Amino acid sequence: MDHPVTGTTEAPPAPQQRPGRGLGSPEAPAAVLATEALTWRIGEVAIVDGVSLQLHPGEFLGVIGPNGAGKTSLFNLVSGLRAVTAGRVLLHGADITTLAPHRRAQRGLGRTFQSSSVFGSLSVRENVRLAVQAHHGGSLALWRRAAAYREVATRADECLATVGLGARGDALAGTLAHGEKRKLEIALLLAGEPSVLLLDEPMAGVSAEDVPELVEVIRELTAHSGRSVLMVEHHMDVILDLADRIAVMHHGALLACDTPDAVMANATVQEAYLGEGL
Ligand SMILES: Nc1ncnc2c1ncn2[C@@H]1O[C@H](COP(=O)(O)OP(=O)(O)OP(=O)(O)O)[C@@H](O)[C@H]1O
């Protein structure tokens, strides 16, 4: 199916400045992550249909759209889990379209681990130490050096503190509540020291009372670090709270990509997306 792609030929506006972001220069800064006419077809069906997006340094870009719009498929193309049919993915200006996922991760593109990659029988701290160790090559020689061991342990504790799990390091990962599991997944992501984070529905399964705390953890990911975030999320209030800009997908295509206010006021978006009662 072919869908018109709007808003893909013009350069997006520079992200709005938020305190501590170091953004807001009159010219849009170079994109840290860009997709160019990214397309994934299964047979004749375009699951992702010519999507061109730009993520700027320190920017928080939310991705929304009805169920089946192609958001997760877009993430799969960007992170390398799926091979593109057409189009390109650029990270810091370099073409990474055909790179394997772990090569993209080495270049700073991090995607939240699925819960299945958390070792439930290990402690929270041990999980993050393994992720730090993996990021640094995971050689046994590294572990024989006491100084290197301490370095890994310190970095793991920093990751846990960043997501607010500093006091939960000794808990078995398998015993964590949903909200804490999401935090651990983010800590595992941070262990890879990414400059660009892809968060796929981080609020999924999280109880309503735990959402505000997780929102603050995610806000801090870009607040002072220069990291950029691309986040798919169904909770509109969370997206509106966090995002500098919002990309709206519909039937695989990009319907709009603009500031939250502009997206909410966009008649096409209202008709195609909000009109469906999401
Ligand atoms: N491997 C696949 N084979 C066939 N169809 C697929 C495959 N992966 C995704 N699809 C279809 O592509 C469409 C987009 O799926 P995708 O999961 O990317 O949407 P989404 O926007 O993330 O949806 P949701 O919000 O429900 O998670 C859906 O119709 C889905 O059924």
Automatic annotation (TrEMBL):
Pfam families found in the cross-reference section: ABC_tran (PF00005), BCA_ABC_TP_C (PF12399)
Cited CDD domains: ABC_Mj1267_LivG_branched
Residue ranges constituting the ABC transporter domain according to the UniProt record: 33-276
Domain of life: Bacteria
Signal sequence region: none
Keyword Transport applies: yes
PANTHER family, alphabetized: ABC TRANSPORTER ATP-BINDING PROTEIN, CONSERVED COMPONENT OF ABC TRANSPORTER FOR NATURAL AMINO ACIDS-RELATED
Name of the protein this chain belongs to: ABC transporter ATP-binding protein
